[in-house]
TrEMBL record, chains A, B:
This is Magnesium transporter MgtE. It is a multi-pass membrane protein. InterPro entries: CBS_dom (IPR000644), CBS_dom_sf (IPR046342), Mg_transptr_MgtE_intracell_dom (IPR006668), MgtE_N_sf (IPR038076), MgtE_transporter (IPR006669), SLC41_membr_dom (IPR006667), SLC41_membr_dom_sf (IPR036739). The chain crosses the membrane at residues 303-321, 377-398, 404-428, 440-465. NCBIfam families: mgtE (TIGR00400). It is found in: Cell membrane; Membrane. Residues 1-23 are annotated as: Disordered. GO terms for cellular component: plasma membrane. Gene3D superfamilies: CBS-domain (3.10.580.10), MgtE N-terminal domain-like (1.25.60.10), SLC41 divalent cation transporters, integral membrane domain (1.10.357.20). Residues 9-23 have a biased composition (Basic and acidic residues). GO terms for molecular function: magnesium ion transmembrane transporter activity; metal ion binding.
Length: 466, 466
């Protein structure tokens, strides 16, 4: 939690353009100072920036300038900046720092942010950093690292306010004022029983609006969303979103309160999980523009090779009709239209289905309804597109038969595309796979193959190339 | 803000499956009660649910059962449930309610939630609901409706805590305890000057941890992110995310504090905005599984027809080579491979670029770097895929020349795909268009056309079909 500095209109004007993106003139200005060896000038420009903006600046300057920038503004390169930085850029900077420097940064961070930095390091560096930490910090981070990656345990912070249920509001206020070493940033107070099991939560606004003498148990809300410590972070994010949570208590297997997760740590997960479907469906892996070229290559080439295989299936189907094509080359000209538009129709349905599954909107209760819904949309789309292409081809080729064949093939393929667009992701999900990862390959293979088969098959059956 | 009820393990077991989706057995149980005319039994099942779960239940039962369910559980069908409900399902339920019933629900809601319901109604119904509201509620909602759709003004609530800068912490505490009609749910206090301009914010945890005698101006943070009332909600969401905000003050054109936005109202926008790219890129419009069939049809058929046009361009290019194909039909068999894999490569780059633009990671400062990065990835991908297909085709067709031609064409098309995948979204963004909306059409057209042109052109030039 922190803020941008000054009035948005005044202070942001030189720094951000109208789309809220960092102004290239500003970035260029910092780089120019560094070019001139004017580290002091660069530092002065960066000085007033919010940590999130300094993190952006590092992402925006060329890779070979980042170490130089870091050296020039080292005193502003603190834990808050690292917490906000793109992970690829951060890992690269961390690589050039000594373990004790990383430990210094990690010690200033909330556990969850420190873990995010340390978990990406290789084992040897990780041990070196942990050795350089104070025992308390080390224990907290080691405990966090003992939970599975992307689990609530990695995401939570251990600093929280927990009070016994027999206290009054006055007791809580006195406790908060008198204990200087308590955390200063929290949004809710957790009320626990003698076994340290959460029994309720209390928003701070309720504490503030209640007289001192009232029992905290009468102010708190008993119903609360408890997060099991091993819950996957995607599930945590969905729960925060669904129940509009600001913070939530994390409990271990025996129900003891072990930490809390706050919404600001979840927001970037919500954004990433929602945004990753488009990357996964296209086979672009993590798809970050700061990812090293070789990593991007490895992530993407796999899917291109998979796509090559499915294209070979379609190619084989075409080869079955070589005789027909040889007699009527126009078929080769038209066949990609049927496959292409069918592919697009399949992608539309698939995108809708994958999103609905990811947001828990599509469940066993409404799968059948979604299938019939997509069939109806596909029929309407199919009739429209088939009519347009059928009439067009009939006129251009002065062949009503060819127009009829392409219309029927288009109708068939859009219908099949609609079915595949729902059934493939649903089947992958039921099989326990992430539907965003592999749906595209199967849907595209279906629409390509069926497009060529329907068009060339119907053309052959109709004796068009007779 | 509210919570789920009881311990997650115990209470959720019958209601949610392991993926946190509502159990079909529970949904079926409610419907079975309704079938038997046992409205009381259905109500008893629904009674303990969180409003967000009741909203889910409405989405999961078939459309023709929703009015019946609403009638059976009318006392639990309150404003909180409507606020959580999918907008299509909500609009459908709102349609069957009388204006005074809608007004009753709207009056209980925060302004932003009430506006979300009312803004979707047609003008006549909207006027009827507004007439049925109390003057205060009406004025607040009418003011909100005066701001542009999807702006901060529609998103903000007017109930907030603002205090003068000369107050002490004790003054603030007394004010909060003594004024029963103040809002009870808030996370930060805004400190304003005599012109009602915000001068700082104060987290409640800071108020709670400070002695009564300290001036609030000494506790507050002066730097804060102010949201202009006409800012687009997507921009608001990005700012909440970037600066990890829990709430933010909204100011009008003259800098006066007019409302506040809290993170729970922004979280679903972050999720929607991040998730919509995959829908927009596929041409699936809003792509909600609850959207009426005709709306989905209208949204999607436009893009299918646009795709038909681009397919015609590719088709025209093929027709230029009819002579070549007639002499060597194998070319028709192989050409979709070049176009298809190129299309996939283009889609990968496009997905990465569109996400980077949407998250403000790709700016004028690093566009050129992104282009060269994608070119390098494309060269690596191109060499790999071209080698595989080239060698394969050379062996299968016992024609090194044909293998060479398809390898060169594949290399060329993947390179062009990489370029188009960056340049098309960047150009659309610079032109002020949403790159997610129209990029696909242009990228696909490029990879299809160039794939056919490169392969058939090289084959012709090489005299393969000679």
């Amino acid at each position: 939690m922190s803020d941008t500095g000054l009035d948005p209109e005044e202070a942001r004007a030189p720094l951000h353009d109208e789309d809220d993106r960092m102004d290239p003139g500003f970035v260029g200005g910092v780089l120019a100072r560094l070019d001139e060896g004017d580290a002091e000038g660069a530092r002065a420009l960066v000085e007033p920036l919010h940590p999130a903006d300094i993190a952006d600046l590092f992402e925006l300057v060329p890779q070979d300038r980042r170490a130089g920038l870091a050296a020039a503004i080292s005193d502003r390169l603190d834990a808050d900046v690292f917490a906000e930085m793109n992970e690829w850029v951060r890992d690269e900077l961390i690589d050039v720092l000594a373990p004790h420097e990383v430990a210094e940064i990690a010690a200033q961070l909330d556990t969850d942010d420190a873990v995010a930095i340390i978990e990406e390091m290789d084992d040897e560096d990780q041990r070196a950093v942990l050795r350089a930490l104070e025992p308390d910090d080390r224990a907290a981070i080691e405990e966090a690292l003992s939970y599975p990656e992307e689990s609530a345990g990695r995401l939570m912070q251990r600093d929280l306010i927990a009070v016994p249920e027999h206290w009054t509001v006055g007791d809580v206020l006195d406790y908060l004022r008198r204990n200087a070493d308590l955390t200063t940033d929290f949004w809710e107070i957790y009320v626990v029983d003698s076994r340290h099991h959460p029994v309720g939560t209390c928003k701070l606004s309720w504490v503030l609006r209640t007289p001192r003498g009232v029992a905290i148990a009468d102010v708190m809300q008993r119903e609360q969303t408890l997060i099991p410590v091993d819950m996957d972070q995607e599930e945590v994010a969905l729960r925060f979103q669904k129940y509009a949570l600001i913070s939530a208590a994390v409990v271990d297997g025996s129900g003891r309160l072990v930490g809390m997760i706050t919404v600001d740590d979840v927001v970037h997960i919500i954004q990433e999980e929602a945004g990753e479907d488009v990357l996964l469906l296209s086979g672009a892996g993590e798809g970050d523009i700061n990812e090293p070229v070789l990593d991007s290559y490895r992530a993407r080439v796999r899917w291109l090779l998979a796509n090559l295989l499915t294209a070979l299936v379609a190619s084989t189907i075409i080869s079955l009709f070589e005789g027909t094509i040889a007699r009527m080359v126009a078929l080769a000209t038209l066949m990609p239209i049927v496959a292409g538009v069918g592919g697009n129709a399949g992608t539309q349905t698939m995108a809708v289905t994958v999103r609905a599954i990811a947001t828990n909107q599509l469940t066993a209760s409404n799968t059948w309804r979604s299938i019939t819904r997509e069939i109806r949309v596909a029929l309407l789309n199919g009739v429209t597109v088939a009519a347009v292409i059928g009439i067009g081809v009939a006129l251009v080729f002065t062949s009503p038969a060819l127009g009829g064949v392409i219309a029927a093939a288009m109708m068939t393929n859009i219908f099949i595309a609609g079915l595949a667009g729902v059934l493939v992701p649903v089947a992958l999900d039921r099989a326990g796979a992430d539907p965003a990862v592999a749906s595209s390959v199967f849907v595209t293979m279906t629409t390509d193959s069926m497009g060529f088969l329907a068009f060339l098959g119907l053309a052959t059956a109709a004796g068009l190339a007779g």
